[in-house]
Amino acid sequence: MSATTLTRPTEAAETSHVRRKSRFHGIDKRPGWLTYALLGVFFLCSAYPLWWSFVMGTRDNAAFGSTWPPLLPGGNFWKNVGEVFDTIPFWLALGNSLLISSIITVSVITFSTLAGYAFAKLRFKGRDGLMVFVIATMAIPTQLGIIPLFMVMRTLGWTGEIGAVIIPTLVTAFGVFFMRQYLVDVIPDELIEAARMDGANMISTFWHVGVPAARPAMAILGLFTFMTAWTDFLWPLLVLDAGNPTLQTALSQLQSARYVDYSIVLAGAILATLPLLLLFIVAGKQLISGIMQGAVKG
Amino acid sequence: MTSTLNRPPVESSSPATSHIPKKAPIAWKHRLSAFDVKASPYFYVAPFFILFAIVGLFPLVYTFVVSLFDWHLLKGQGDFVGLGNFVAVLNDRFFWNSLFNTVSIFFLSSIPQLVAAVVIAAVLDQNLRARTFWRMSILLPYVVTPVAVAMIFSNVFGEDYGLINNLLESFGITPVMWQNETLPSHIAIATMVNWRWTGYNALILLAAMQSVPRDIHESAALDGAGAFRRFFSITLPSIRPTMVFVIITATIGGLQIFTEPRLFDPVTAGGSQRQFQTTVLYLWEMAFFRQNFGKASAIAWLLFLLIVIFGLINFVLSRSIATAEGRGAKARSQRRLAKVRAREARESLRAGTAASVHRKTTLGADPSKSAEPPAERSAK
Amino acid sequence: MNLSRRNRLASGIAGAAAFALLATGCASTGGGSSDGDIELSITTFGTFGYDDLYKEYEKANPNITIKATNIDTGGNARTDAFTKISAGSGLSDVVAIEEGWLGAIMEVSDRFVDLNEYGAEDIKDNWVPWKYEQGTDPDGRVIGYGTDIGPQGLCYNGKLFEAAGLPSDRESVAALFGGDDATWETYFQLGEQYKAATGKAWYDHSGFVWNSMVNQLEEGYYTKDGELNVEGNTELRARFDQLAAGTAGGLSANQKAWDWGKGKAFVDGSFATFVCPGWMLGTIKGSLESGGGDASTGWDFADVFPGGASNWGGAFLSVPTTSEHPEEAAALAEWLTAPEQQVKQSAAAGNFPSTIEAQEKLAEEATPNELFNNAPTGAILASRAEGVIAQFKGPHDSLIQENVFGPALKLLDTGKTKSADEAWDEAITLLNDLVVNN
Lengths: 298, 380, 438
Fold this sequence. Notes:
heterotrimer, B: mainly alpha, two-stranded antiparallel ribbon, 67% helix, globular, C: 438 residues, D-Maltodextrin-Binding Protein, domain 2, transport (chain A), transmembrane helix (chain A), cell membrane (chain A), MetI-like_sf (chain A)
């Protein structure tokens, strides 16, 4: 595979842009209204449930009874948000989620890049066998190990601590595979040899050649790892408690505690979505190109 | 936007075979360096393997150990029962019920999702105005976590006074029992999954579509093929490998679905008649409600085997589809590309823009290459 | 261009991480113990009505901060409690235990502090004797102070009764159902009459009626000796058939318990009667509020119950041994369950106290409950508490109630079967799956 693989979709897109005025008739012409109508429908499907939740979160329970859903926000938002803050330790949960997801992300990126680099660019005995092992374990749902993990955490007395959530996901086989696939093409062997010729030892070669080259893939892997950790629910539900939750377990706690106050529950759901939503608005373009680049990279 | 800038300055022309090592290390290194060269790779891979052994493999193996015993959540290890727990689980109607629900929800989510994603990707794969906006708009649900999705859609699908039933009633249609009836509850849960993931998958498919060389489309268009014709004879075949990968990741994630059914009805853990209790939810019930770790471990292992089997089937299927389709698509691409090149050569001669030809063709993707969407979904 | 963009993303992530460190850093000092400041956590479920009492206690004890968690249902509270007991951590300093799963807690009673060490013996006489005994384990350790008990009266909607041509004032309704000799037979007969007149359902769903029927038996799912007592229990079966016949006849509104269509089923006339242990009054209050109902909706509370006195539910406050402040936790539990506070709790949540003094006070004051057509709910409950017996609760009592008979009765409610035999068989199968052979 050529070294340009990673950037292919965007480049292709951009070329299509340049080629807009192509003499060849037709394939890159501006689409008609039907396309935009369809896109409008997709947009509604994506956005409406969120908007509806927001509107409901700004009203009270009576709004649920009206046959036609209200379209505009009501005046109860801050009151509902206040109730959310009274019911769950929102900021603590947000902080925990950020901390957990960040540490896991850094860890997965670090160990995946190290191992991926070794698998892609270094020669050592047993390399191919170990790589097969990595690929084989990629499909293993390690989440099904919750029972022993739970027993271990209880023996160590780590239940209730966010460390119990972090430890089991410090590495992923997928990360190693992903980095290896990326690095194998992107670093020319000549470059490594050149660095070694200059007298660089292994680790500094890794640092000065491997890491810079790996950066784009690290960003993509980081993005997905962060999302995975951020959305995890089952495991934190088992090992954390109401006093020290993640955002996800705190949300379910809110649903449990305020089971008849639907507008408060939805206000909480929206509130918990806001951080990622803001990040999405700021960095959505990167997220999209990340997903699309990750897609073509095999 | 490209990431070209971050690449090492040496512009690579290295072929795909570059992972085969080229030359032996040169002898001018002294001993320390030799040790460095020999040992470093192991130091690089060791952290991964050590950690993975502890947090990935050990729990899996130990789950099997637990499954061989009577093992109570509170009272701990009891008698050795051999495969007794497995026999009990395989004779347990709730286990089969949970498998049925899991697979049913999986199909209800993966198939419509794939179809919708292809359609959306096709619509996006045009020369749109405000392209980024539209792409972002379909990806929007992805940033809403499953817990929030479940909370939102539990209200949308409420049996009394839910958004949908309210609308149905205003049109005089009998409301649907979204929680009490099996199929509607599966549809409701599948909708939660679909809502969150369709846009994400559409982007992945869009990437695959855009890696189909423009030239092929152009030459087909020149030959008089309309947009629909081109979609079915060019686009669809070339994104098939990507679709297979979307399905594989959907499988691994779909078979482990927990959050949505757990929160769809928080009181019953899968419905009053277990009509939407998935296998992981049953595993949770067995372990932490019925407090039977032995049987719960057996369920975990059976589910694990099932996922491996599904994975293998997928793998074999994707292999054969990828090669068969890839070959066909490749042959077609080659023919088209040859045509295109010939034509462009003629035209560039006329127009004197030969320079651009080379660049374009290097962009051509090899459709037989499997695309790999990140395996993030397994973590639902 | 790319560089700057990626850097923005990277710095965004870094910023988030830094913020996370900051946030948790701040938060971790919150649980601190500087200068005798103590944070006590407490977990309750359903509607406990403690919010104002916490504030009062914090005011009286400035060194104490209370962190409260409430869980929607007793069933979910049970799973939560046992997950945490098995994890060996995570339990609050004070944990509310429901009568239904007290039997299961008794099997691990050593995980809870013996309140005798904190003066339980001295206040023993506060409670009705059977409540205090329930909270005592076989070794004589007191592991829970009783909060409330669940004597049952009959909630009914006066407006709906009127519309169906039935009497609607409390005394006439009590007499209608048979006064002191009220039977389930009369209850179902009246239901049929109501159904014929209005075409509407009589009770919200079968499960709650069933719980009431079982809880007034001398022996429920277990014998006094702790033996499972379901299969072949003719008395239980007879009641089951009675209920099944009523439900098959359309008397059940097939409502989802704890949801009731976001409370609207209480408002829109879906059903006309509701079995009401004291604590249920708080649940109804919450449902009415969320469903947009109020006093004008027509609910009332009659001093009568089919089949005689019945006690369903009630709770205890316990202190797990994992608590870092057992003494302060025990003090809080003692204070919350003291007669004076039980009266306030009753005013907030409608439930009925378990201490004698509080019970007498409620009976005496007979404060009208506005939401229930100004019925003196406390006084009525005091009257309903007369003759209540403490039924032995086995280790799987709540599980049998919710996961064995719950689904079996739901079969009847949803109309999946009309046959009592079929539903009963399902219950027995479930019992064997979940309890006997688990």
